[in-house]
Design goal:
The protein has 410 residues and is α/β, with parallel strands linked by helices. Helices cover 39% and strands 21% of the residues. α1 runs parallel beside α2, α4 runs parallel beside α5 and α9 crosses α13.
């Protein structure tokens, strides 16, 4: 497939789609073009027209507008769909696109449950089309450098443990009228698949899978304490969780956070190896979910300390990582020098469609393993038991997910 032949369509035109457009701008400004957006689709016609207008302004061509993705598939000829939809719609829209011969870049998480995600991955295999899962944070300089520390440079020796903790007071309750639509579906377990553990938390799950490989088992407790009366995850979305994660590699650690803890704010994100530690010191309220995150208004920060007392800033570690790469490797990880994880995930998808890469970095099966971490946490909190992630992946354990599967007829 020639570069100029790659035509994309957005299905879902909400806020995350606008972020994808910014990433596409970044690629074009760096000379990494060879694609165009020819159509957009959203059930909210106003949202679709807003995104189409933005694309027209930025790229000189206003795409066609649809409000029904099935009509889009029947009418337009394009190569890839960029899906920016509520979680509960991922499986049906993705499978229909794949079966129509359209490759898919799907926003995280892969699906609303393991069963939904598995159907998506199987559909990609069956149709021979590409399914890529959009996870930007593992692709940024901070996480690439951390992965290099854990696996290649061994600056802190063999990874052993981690301690990731965060607390902040609850947000003030202010009556401002109805919730915006993007908040309504996120509070609906049938549409979202869960609370923050599966939303922002999916980024964390993907990062930890990227760093340390397959998870063996988890034990979790969850609460909803914002009401003043702690309740379990059975009744309300969680605002506080306490998790022990044990990886098959032997790495073990804790992930605990609360967004409803009155009093002092606190955050500590530290990895320990046999010869030192690596700490995320980024000033970000999302640090517990988005490790070593760089944003347009924020530069990541951190410190590596070796057992002999030698220390390096995260910026120094990132430069060491870049210096260790060949020019080809650097271009593959950071095309055109970009550090925008959204731009890199889109470029990765495009490179697979061009035939320059065999598969996306995060395909359906890789995305499913990250989803299994989040769902194992829910299954443990729901049952009160230690949960083996392989049992979640196989479907043997699905008590928390079962009502969601039944809702969607899976």
């Amino acid at each position: 497939m020639a570069d100029h032949d790659i035509k994309l369509a957005f299905i879902g035109c909400g806020s995350i789609a606008h972020r994808h457009v910014l990433a596409m701008q970044d690629l074009k400004q760096r000379g990494r073009a060879g694609f165009s957006v020819t159509a957009v689709c959203d059930a909210n016609e106003e949202a679709a027209h807003m995104l189409a207008a933005k694309l027209g302004q930025e790229f000189g061509r206003k795409p066609a507008v649809y409000t029904d993705y099935r009509q889009l598939l029947d009418t337009e000829r394009f190569d890839g769909a960029d899906l920016c939809l509520p979680h509960g719609l991922h499986h049906s829209v993705t499978i229909n696109c794949l079966e129509a011969g359209i490759n898919v870049l799907c926003e995280k998480p892969i699906g609303v449950t393991i069963k939904a995600g598995r159907l998506m991955a199987e559909a990609a295999d069956r149709t021979g089309r590409v399914l890529a899962i959009a996870v930007p944070h593992r692709r940024q300089p901070g996480q690439r450098a951390a992965h290099w520390v854990f696996h290649d440079s061994r600056l802190i020796g063999n990874p052993m443990t981690f301690f990731h903790h965060y607390t902040r007071p609850p947000a003030p309750k202010v009556e401002t009228g109805p919730l915006p639509p993007k908040m309504v579906w996120r509070r609906d377990r049938m549409m979202s698949g869960g609370g923050m553990t599966l939303d922002s938390g999916f980024h964390y799950c993907d990062s930890m899978h990227y760093f340390f490989g397959d998870l063996d088992k988890v034990y979790a407790e969850m609460r909803e304490v914002g009401s003043g009366t702690p309740r379990t995850v059975h009744e309300r979305p969680e605002d506080s969780i306490f998790v022990t994660l044990t990886f098959k590699s032997g790495v073990v650690g804790t992930w605990a956070w609360s967004v409803a803890a009155p009093g002092k704010r606190h955050c500590s994100v530290v990895f320990h190896g046999s010869e030192g530690s690596l700490e995320d010191l980024t000033e970000s309220p999302y640090r517990i979910f988005h490790l070593f995150e760089r944003r347009p208004d924020q530069v990541e920060a951190g410190q590596l300390v070796r057992a002999d007392g030698t220390s390096y800033t995260l910026a120094e570690v990132e430069q060491m990582h870049l210096d260790a790469l060949t020019e080809t490797e650097r271009e593959a990880l950071f095309p055109g020098g970009t550090s925008d994880g959204f731009a890199i995930e889109i470029w990765d998808f495009l490179e697979v469609l061009r035939g320059n890469r065999a598969r996306p970095e995060v395909d359906g099966w890789e995305g499913l393993r990250s989803l299994a971490i989040g769902d194992a946490i829910y299954e443990s909190a729901f049952s009160g038991n230690i949960i083996h992630v392989d049992d979640v992946l196989s479907g043997k354990v699905n008590t928390f997910q079962q009502p969601i599967d039944e809702h969607w007829g899976l």
